[in-house]
């Protein structure tokens, strides 16, 4: 009985980790797309030149 419970617990942990990693990949992809859009569509300064593409 105990080995079956350990195998089920291990499967649950691995499934949870795999799901979390997949969600993190989707979040990283969304942030990359937003960053690229911000880089390509950045505004101009009062002098007419392009502003900094970073915020820090």
What's a concise summary of this model?
With 56 residues, this protein is an all-alpha fold.
Q: Characteristics of this structure?
A:
single chain, 56 residues, mainly alpha, 1 helix, 70% helix, rod-shaped
Report the total helices. Answer: 1
* Rg, Å, rounded: 22 Å
* Percentage of β-strand residues: under 5%
What is the end-to-end distance?
57 Å
Order of helices and strands: H
Strand segment count? 0
Secondary-structure-based class equals mainly alpha
Shape: rod-shaped
What's the overall average pLDDT, rounded?
Answer: 79
Largest sheet: none
Which stretches of 5+ consecutive residues score pLDDT under 50? none
Keywords: Membrane, Transmembrane, Transmembrane helix
Transmembrane segments: 30-48
Protein name: Hydrophobic protein
Could you explain how this protein is built, in words?
With 56 residues, the protein is mostly helical. 70% of the residues lie in helices and 0% in strands.
Write the layout of secondary structure elements.
Blueprint lengths: L1 H39 L16
């Amino acid at each position: 009985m105990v080995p079956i419970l350990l195998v089920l617990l291990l499967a649950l942990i691995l499934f949870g980790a795999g799901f979390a990693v997949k969600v993190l990949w989707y979040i990283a992809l969304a942030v990359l797309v937003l960053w690229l859009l911000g880089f390509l569509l950045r505004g101009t300064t009062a002098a007419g030149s392009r502003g900094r593409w970073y915020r820090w």
